[in-house]
Amino acid sequence: MKKELLLYGFALLVACSAQSCSSSSSEPETPVVAEQEPEDSSRILVFSKTSGYYHESIPDGIAAIQKLGREHNVMVDTTKNAAYFNPDSLQNYKAVVFLSTTMDVLDTVQQAAFEKYIQAGGGFAGIHAAADTEYDWPWYNKLVGAYFLSHPKQQNATVRVKDKNHPSTSHLPDDWELFDELYNYKDINPEVNVLATLDESTYEGGENGENHPIVWYHDYDGGRAFYTGLGHTKESYSDSLFLPHIWGGITYAMGEKE
Fold first, then answer.
1. What is the pLDDT of residue 17?
2. Strand (E) positions, the chain?
3. Residue pLDDT, tens place only, 55-65
4. Rounded to two decimals, what is the model's pTM?
5. Which pLDDT tens digit goes with each residue over 178-225?
6. What pLDDT is recorded for position 212?
7. Please, what's the b/e burial string for 218-247 (b: 16 or more CB within 10 A of its CB; e: otherwise)?
């Protein structure tokens, strides 16, 4: 599999040389393929393309997920090249992580390929601005679970953990106090299973009221989807509670059991 992915990455590089592959960030366009692949390992893809706001914490998030992958014997490929969203590529991954993607990141052909990937049992894990992505794609709205509406200034707040029977929340305290950029949401999918909510009485600028979901999961269209609205800051990706939180969500998306 490693050889096939490396050859595919080279093909994408050639394709990019023949068309515009510009980006607003300094991250490399060509997919970065994990170097080692033990026989019993799984593989995930971290996708971080942005067409809107670029989060400076994205490189920190990539590095953190790569480290978590090494610790759990999971190969982590990373890219912001949407051309990777095709059946030949996606079939290699147990889950795809949208790491603070923003606005339109996939064309209609790539969207169709991703839908088929999920329908075939694939997994999705969305982190933070994954909800600020693909506003004109109703299927994605239901997959990610909600769209970004607004956010107040970054500040301290309390997350109320409602369900610990999930690998993303099993280690968390009932009341998780943190500093982050706290999203308000619209078009919330009522079928998601909410794991944690924001207590709007503990900070300023909340707009979702007493039921303000911030972490959730659900089975969707044949696959699995997890989302956390946390993870705006660079500091998140060295936090001892946040790292197992996102890895637990990725584990669920992969269909693995802890």
1. 34
2. 42-47, 74-79, 95-99, 123-127, 147-150, 155-161, 175-180, 184-186, 193-198, 213-220, 223-228
3. 999 999 999 99
4. 0.88
5. 999 999 999 999 999 999 999 999 999 999 999 999 999 999 999 999
6. 98
7. bebeebbbbbbbbbbbeebbebeebbbbbb
Q: What are the boundaries of each domain within the chain?
A: 2-35+42-146+190-197+215-254
The residues near 206 (Cβ < 8 Å, ≥ 6 apart) are 152, 182, 184, 198, 200, 212
φ/ψ bin of 107: left (φ > 0), alpha (ψ from -120 to 50), beta (otherwise): beta
Q: Which two tokens mark 20?
A: 């515009």
Domain 2-35+42-146+190-197+215-254 grouped into CATH 3.40.50.2300: no
175 within 8 A of 206, measured Cβ to Cβ: no
Q: What is the CA radius of gyration of the chain?
A: 17
